[in-house]
Amino acid sequence: MSLETDFAEERKSKEDEEDKRKQIELKRKCEEDEEDNEENEEGIGWNILPVQSQLQGNEKRYCINEFPKFTAEEEVLLASVARLFQKKEGKAGKKDLKKFFKKYCTQNLILLEKKQATYLFLALESNLFGFGPFDFFLKDEEIEEIAVVGTGKSKPLYIFHTRHGWMASNVFFNNRQAVTDIVNKMARPVGRRLSMNSPVLNATLPDGNRLSAVLSPVSFSGPSLTIRKFRQEPFTPTQLLENKTFSHELMAFLWIAMQCDCSILIAGNTGSGKTSSLNALLSFVPKNERIIVVEETPEIRVQHKHFVKLNVVKEQSVGMQNLIVESLRMRPDRIIIGEVRSREEVSAFIDTLLAGQGKGSYATFHGQSIKETLNRMRSLGVLEIDLAAIDLVLVQRRWNVMEKKDSIDQKGNREVRHIVEVAELCEKNRKVECNTLFKFDYDKRKLVRKGKSVKVFEKAKQGFCFGRKGFEKEIERRAGILAGMQCSKIKMKEFFEKVNKI
């Protein structure tokens, strides 16, 4: 053997030892970071909890099965490929990534098993061209909310499932920077950015989902991220009947109310389905009418072709009041304020009612009862005499029902609890009076009719030219039509067209 060969072998041996030392050092560092929840810039910033920790007792866990837990070596590979691809390829596409990944492994003598290559490429693809693990949660229609509550194995990503409520997932983020990067990637199309100088970000994503993110020092427990998902296909009135959110009689009554130009305020607690109900009720508005939608967070989806959407842009000093004034010049048939929360937004909604804009105005509001809703309106500056401009107030609630089978399970229900007409001021106490029309009966476990309508009946009498008996018969007739149409598979567009032919 030649001296040159000896030197080559010795050099190769030293290089192998150095590589091995780096791998051991990196693995040790990754393990320390996981244990201590320290920031780690290696890898793609997120990982999967091992299989054995997916179930603890009776706790349900939502699992992404496309990936195993990444090893330290796999994290190094993912980080290296992602960094080099972004540096060299620029605006390359997914096909280019596949070629690049294969070429990188070949050049670096990295041999991957078929299954391993598949999930590593999928992780790269979702990180570089999507939103990492969020891609898998966003495509599930049964997930309503996605939440990051910190970093490390002890703080997995949580989801709110339609049927199971809050569940931990098997995904966790390794470091704060990974969360920040994904937030900024999501918010890039709307021109917003999360940083230490701007630690709070609220945005509506191009797909309609709502994003809220907070960094330290505002979020003391670590980076916080919440995505409120909105259904791509709105609930139809018949689906809300199947879900037992509404009764057939109430839905038929509201169908008439929408057609005879009554204004409605839908109140409820967080996640009670206020916007879903409003979207469903708007399908009863005749298709040839002009709709003006004014919102800060775009959530309202109308089926009408003739509509205008106006959004609040605080960065350019365009507030709700400005948009309401602008809508006065647009000759709306119906005006929708979306969700009213602040004093300015509540004032804007009442202004639309008092100005007599269009045939009806609609909004959603946070309030757990009729009394609380009206008191909150008063606390936000609404005069008592102006409250009577609202025709109907509907309260919808979401709460947990405890079901005991093998173990106690929480089932979240969304149901209408109370609906009233707001009458004129009472001469005695100078307060508006409420005429209760429907109220939830806790003994019968259903919504029941409690009283006869006055305001809606008067408007229906003018529009449809019938008396009290005819009004009641029409409610009954429409309830029968809705029962006959009841089908969970019917889409909103199809329902909208059918209703407009009746």
Layout of strands and helices, then pairs:
Blueprint: H1 3-36, E1 46-48, E2 61-62, H2 72-89, H3 94-107, H4 114-129, H5 134-138, E3 143-148, E4 158-161, E5 165-169, E6 171-173, H6 176-187, E7 200-204, E8 210-214, E9 224-228, H7 237-242, H8 248-259, E10 264-268, H9 274-281, E11 291-295, E12 307-311, H10 320-327, E13 334-340, H11 343-354, E14 360-366, H12 370-379, H13 384-387, E15 392-404, E16 408-425, E17 432-441, E18 446-449, H14 455-464, H15 468-485, H16 492-499
Parallel strand pairs: 2-5, 10-14, 10-15, 11-12, 11-13, 13-14
Antiparallel strand pairs: 1-6, 3-4, 3-9, 4-5, 7-8, 8-9, 15-16, 16-17, 17-18
Helix pairs in contact: 2-4, 3-4, 8-15
Structure in words:
This protein has about 500 residues and is an alpha/beta fold. The chain has two domains: about 15-230, Beta-Lactamase, CATH 3.30.450; about 235-500, P-loop containing nucleotide triphosphate hydrolases (Rossmann fold, 3-Layer(aba) Sandwich). It contains 16 helices and 18 strands. The strands form three sheets. It has a nine-stranded mixed sheet, with helices on both faces. β7 and β8 (about 210-215) form a beta hairpin. α2 crosses α4 (about 115-130) and α3 packs across α4.
Q: What number is the mean pLDDT?
A: 85
CATH superfamily of the largest domain: P-loop containing nucleotide triphosphate hydrolases
Q: Major sheet: size, sense and barrel closure?
A: 9 strands, mixed
Tell me the name of the CATH class of the largest domain: Alpha Beta
Spatial ordering of strands, largest sheet? 12-11-13-14-10-15-16-17-18
